Amino acid sequence: MMANRKQEKWWIDFFKGDFTEVVLNQQAEETVGFMQRTGRLEPGMNVFDQCCGKGYLAHELDKAGIRVTGIDISEPYIAYAQKHLSSERATFVLGDASTYLRPGEFDISINWNTSFGYHEDDAENERMLIPFSSNLKDGGQFFFSTMNPLFIHKHFQRYIVKQVPSGDSTIITIRESWIEHGMMKSNWLIVYPDGHRETAYGQTKLYSLEQFETMFLRHGLRVEQAFGDLSHSPYDEDHPSMIIYGKKQ
Questions:
Q1: What radius of gyration do the chain's Cα atoms show?
Q2: Measured by CB atoms within 10 angstroms of the end CB, which terminus of the chain is less buried, N or C?
Protein backbone atom coordinates (compact mmCIF):
# COMPACT_ATOMS: atom_id res chain seq x y z
CA MET A 1 0.00 0.00 0.00
CA MET A 2 2.49 2.62 1.19
CA ALA A 3 6.27 2.52 1.25
CA ASN A 4 8.02 1.28 4.34
CA ARG A 5 9.99 4.35 5.36
CA LYS A 6 11.69 5.71 8.42
CA GLN A 7 11.94 9.43 9.03
CA GLU A 8 14.12 11.48 11.31
CA LYS A 9 11.95 13.48 13.70
CA TRP A 10 8.88 12.00 12.03
CA TRP A 11 6.63 13.52 14.69
CA ILE A 12 7.18 17.00 13.25
CA ASP A 13 5.26 15.96 10.13
CA PHE A 14 2.84 13.65 11.91
CA PHE A 15 1.53 16.14 14.45
CA LYS A 16 0.33 18.87 12.17
CA GLY A 17 -2.68 19.77 10.10
CA ASP A 18 -5.96 17.91 10.35
CA PHE A 19 -4.54 14.40 10.25
CA THR A 20 -4.39 13.75 13.97
CA GLU A 21 -7.82 15.31 14.51
CA VAL A 22 -9.06 12.12 12.88
CA VAL A 23 -6.45 9.59 13.97
CA LEU A 24 -6.26 10.46 17.66
CA ASN A 25 -9.30 10.08 19.85
CA GLN A 26 -8.87 12.93 22.30
CA GLN A 27 -11.31 11.68 24.97
CA ALA A 28 -10.31 14.71 27.05
CA GLU A 29 -13.43 14.83 29.22
CA GLU A 30 -13.33 11.08 29.87
CA THR A 31 -9.62 11.29 30.65
CA VAL A 32 -10.07 13.96 33.31
CA GLY A 33 -12.89 11.92 34.83
CA PHE A 34 -10.58 8.91 34.95
CA MET A 35 -7.88 10.98 36.65
CA GLN A 36 -10.34 12.31 39.22
CA ARG A 37 -11.46 8.76 40.06
CA THR A 38 -7.91 7.40 40.18
CA GLY A 39 -5.89 10.05 42.00
CA ARG A 40 -6.42 13.40 43.69
CA LEU A 41 -7.27 16.37 41.47
CA GLU A 42 -8.31 19.51 43.25
CA PRO A 43 -8.95 23.09 42.08
CA GLY A 44 -5.81 25.17 42.33
CA MET A 45 -3.44 22.28 41.71
CA ASN A 46 -0.66 22.88 39.16
CA VAL A 47 -0.30 20.38 36.29
CA PHE A 48 2.55 19.83 33.82
CA ASP A 49 1.06 18.54 30.54
CA GLN A 50 4.05 17.14 28.67
CA CYS A 51 3.37 16.92 24.90
CA CYS A 52 0.02 18.68 25.22
CA GLY A 53 -0.93 18.67 21.52
CA LYS A 54 -3.69 21.15 20.76
CA GLY A 55 -4.46 21.52 24.46
CA TYR A 56 -7.76 19.65 24.72
CA LEU A 57 -6.80 17.78 27.89
CA ALA A 58 -5.37 20.95 29.44
CA HIS A 59 -8.62 22.73 28.59
CA GLU A 60 -10.68 20.13 30.45
CA LEU A 61 -8.39 20.41 33.46
CA ASP A 62 -8.73 24.20 33.30
CA LYS A 63 -12.53 23.80 33.37
CA ALA A 64 -12.10 21.78 36.57
CA GLY A 65 -10.29 24.73 38.18
CA ILE A 66 -6.81 23.27 37.77
CA ARG A 67 -3.82 25.29 36.56
CA VAL A 68 -2.01 23.75 33.58
CA THR A 69 1.18 24.40 31.67
CA GLY A 70 1.22 22.52 28.37
CA ILE A 71 4.27 22.17 26.15
CA ASP A 72 4.55 20.76 22.65
CA ILE A 73 7.00 20.93 19.77
CA SER A 74 4.29 21.35 17.12
CA GLU A 75 3.96 25.00 16.11
CA PRO A 76 0.44 24.59 14.61
CA TYR A 77 -0.80 22.80 17.73
CA ILE A 78 0.55 25.38 20.16
CA ALA A 79 -0.70 28.23 17.97
CA TYR A 80 -4.18 26.68 18.09
CA ALA A 81 -4.03 26.17 21.87
CA GLN A 82 -2.78 29.70 22.52
CA LYS A 83 -5.48 31.22 20.33
CA HIS A 84 -8.47 29.13 21.40
CA LEU A 85 -7.80 27.49 24.77
CA SER A 86 -5.41 29.63 26.80
CA SER A 87 -6.75 31.29 29.95
CA GLU A 88 -5.63 32.57 33.34
CA ARG A 89 -5.17 28.95 34.39
CA ALA A 90 -4.04 27.34 31.09
CA THR A 91 -0.71 28.32 29.53
CA PHE A 92 0.79 26.78 26.39
CA VAL A 93 4.48 26.79 25.48
CA LEU A 94 6.19 25.95 22.19
CA GLY A 95 9.28 23.88 22.92
CA ASP A 96 10.98 20.53 23.41
CA ALA A 97 9.09 18.57 26.07
CA SER A 98 12.20 16.50 26.84
CA THR A 99 14.22 19.54 27.98
CA TYR A 100 11.60 21.85 29.54
CA LEU A 101 12.60 22.19 33.19
CA ARG A 102 10.76 23.93 36.03
CA PRO A 103 11.96 21.82 38.98
CA GLY A 104 9.51 21.03 41.75
CA GLU A 105 6.81 23.37 40.49
CA PHE A 106 3.96 20.97 39.69
CA ASP A 107 1.58 18.81 41.72
CA ILE A 108 0.90 16.49 38.77
CA SER A 109 2.80 15.44 35.63
CA ILE A 110 0.95 14.05 32.62
CA ASN A 111 2.33 12.31 29.54
CA TRP A 112 -0.70 11.17 27.59
CA ASN A 113 -1.77 9.56 24.30
CA THR A 114 1.48 7.72 23.50
CA SER A 115 3.84 10.69 23.68
CA PHE A 116 6.80 8.50 24.64
CA GLY A 117 9.11 6.07 22.84
CA TYR A 118 9.55 7.74 19.46
CA HIS A 119 13.22 6.67 19.16
CA GLU A 120 14.81 3.25 18.74
CA ASP A 121 17.45 4.26 21.31
CA ASP A 122 16.28 3.59 24.88
CA ALA A 123 18.43 6.30 26.45
CA GLU A 124 17.01 8.88 24.05
CA ASN A 125 13.47 7.85 24.95
CA GLU A 126 14.18 7.99 28.67
CA ARG A 127 15.28 11.63 28.40
CA MET A 128 11.57 12.49 28.36
CA LEU A 129 11.33 11.31 31.97
CA ILE A 130 13.86 13.89 33.22
CA PRO A 131 11.47 16.89 33.15
CA PHE A 132 8.50 14.59 33.75
CA SER A 133 9.98 13.80 37.17
CA SER A 134 12.11 16.87 37.88
CA ASN A 135 9.20 19.27 37.40
CA LEU A 136 7.12 17.30 39.90
CA LYS A 137 7.01 18.09 43.62
CA ASP A 138 8.04 15.36 46.05
CA GLY A 139 4.95 13.25 46.66
CA GLY A 140 3.37 14.59 43.46
CA GLN A 141 1.24 12.39 41.22
CA PHE A 142 1.78 11.32 37.62
CA PHE A 143 -0.41 9.91 34.86
CA PHE A 144 1.08 8.20 31.82
CA SER A 145 -0.55 6.42 28.89
CA THR A 146 0.84 4.51 25.93
CA MET A 147 0.32 1.39 23.81
CA ASN A 148 -0.19 -1.97 25.48
CA PRO A 149 2.35 -4.41 23.94
CA LEU A 150 0.48 -7.42 25.39
CA PHE A 151 -2.64 -6.40 23.47
CA ILE A 152 -0.71 -5.61 20.29
CA HIS A 153 1.06 -8.97 20.18
CA LYS A 154 -2.15 -10.93 20.79
CA HIS A 155 -4.46 -8.92 18.52
CA PHE A 156 -2.00 -7.65 15.91
CA GLN A 157 -3.54 -6.55 12.61
CA ARG A 158 -1.32 -5.46 9.74
CA TYR A 159 -4.08 -3.40 8.11
CA ILE A 160 -6.80 -1.49 9.95
CA VAL A 161 -9.45 0.46 8.06
CA LYS A 162 -11.81 2.79 9.91
CA GLN A 163 -14.66 5.04 8.87
CA VAL A 164 -14.97 8.21 10.94
CA PRO A 165 -18.18 10.28 10.76
CA SER A 166 -17.62 13.85 9.58
CA GLY A 167 -20.80 15.89 9.35
CA ASP A 168 -23.00 14.23 6.75
CA SER A 169 -20.05 12.33 5.31
CA THR A 170 -17.33 9.86 6.28
CA ILE A 171 -13.56 10.09 6.53
CA ILE A 172 -11.65 6.88 5.84
CA THR A 173 -8.40 6.04 7.61
CA ILE A 174 -6.13 3.17 6.59
CA ARG A 175 -3.22 2.09 8.77
CA GLU A 176 -0.53 -0.39 7.73
CA SER A 177 1.57 -1.53 10.70
CA TRP A 178 4.52 -3.80 11.38
CA ILE A 179 6.84 -4.53 14.31
CA GLU A 180 10.54 -3.97 13.75
CA HIS A 181 13.41 -3.64 16.26
CA GLY A 182 10.91 -3.68 19.12
CA MET A 183 8.92 -0.82 17.64
CA MET A 184 5.39 -0.53 16.35
CA LYS A 185 5.74 1.25 13.01
CA SER A 186 2.83 2.48 10.92
CA ASN A 187 2.05 4.19 7.65
CA TRP A 188 -1.23 6.10 7.64
CA LEU A 189 -3.51 7.18 4.83
CA ILE A 190 -6.52 9.40 5.39
CA VAL A 191 -9.11 10.03 2.69
CA TYR A 192 -11.49 12.99 3.10
CA PRO A 193 -15.00 13.16 1.60
CA ASP A 194 -13.81 15.57 -1.11
CA GLY A 195 -11.12 13.11 -2.20
CA HIS A 196 -8.22 14.94 -0.55
CA ARG A 197 -5.63 12.56 0.89
CA GLU A 198 -2.96 12.86 3.57
CA THR A 199 -0.24 10.38 4.54
CA ALA A 200 1.93 10.08 7.63
CA TYR A 201 4.45 7.77 9.26
CA GLY A 202 4.78 7.01 12.97
CA GLN A 203 6.74 4.70 15.27
CA THR A 204 6.63 3.86 18.98
CA LYS A 205 8.94 1.66 21.05
CA LEU A 206 7.02 -1.09 22.81
CA TYR A 207 8.02 -1.33 26.47
CA SER A 208 6.60 -3.76 29.02
CA LEU A 209 5.05 -2.55 32.25
CA GLU A 210 8.05 -3.97 34.11
CA GLN A 211 10.43 -1.96 31.92
CA PHE A 212 8.46 1.20 32.61
CA GLU A 213 8.48 0.51 36.35
CA THR A 214 12.28 0.23 36.22
CA MET A 215 12.66 3.40 34.16
CA PHE A 216 10.34 5.35 36.43
CA LEU A 217 12.21 4.21 39.55
CA ARG A 218 15.46 5.52 38.09
CA HIS A 219 13.81 8.95 38.15
CA GLY A 220 12.28 8.64 41.60
CA LEU A 221 8.81 7.69 40.38
CA ARG A 222 6.90 4.73 41.79
CA VAL A 223 4.10 3.03 39.85
CA GLU A 224 1.06 2.43 42.04
CA GLN A 225 -1.56 1.21 39.53
CA ALA A 226 -1.84 0.17 35.89
CA PHE A 227 -5.02 -0.07 33.80
CA GLY A 228 -6.04 -1.21 30.34
CA ASP A 229 -8.44 1.64 29.54
CA LEU A 230 -10.23 4.66 31.00
CA SER A 231 -12.88 2.41 32.57
CA HIS A 232 -10.27 1.00 34.99
CA SER A 233 -10.22 -2.32 33.17
CA PRO A 234 -7.26 -4.53 34.10
CA TYR A 235 -3.96 -4.11 32.33
CA ASP A 236 -3.83 -7.35 30.34
CA GLU A 237 -3.63 -8.74 26.82
CA ASP A 238 -7.30 -7.99 26.08
CA HIS A 239 -7.33 -4.25 26.76
CA PRO A 240 -5.62 -1.82 24.36
CA SER A 241 -3.90 0.71 26.62
CA MET A 242 -1.23 0.89 29.26
CA ILE A 243 -2.35 3.61 31.66
CA ILE A 244 -0.05 4.17 34.64
CA TYR A 245 -0.68 6.12 37.83
CA GLY A 246 1.96 6.74 40.47
CA LYS A 247 3.74 9.20 42.72
CA LYS A 248 7.15 10.78 43.08
CA GLN A 249 9.04 9.42 46.07
A1: 18
A2: N
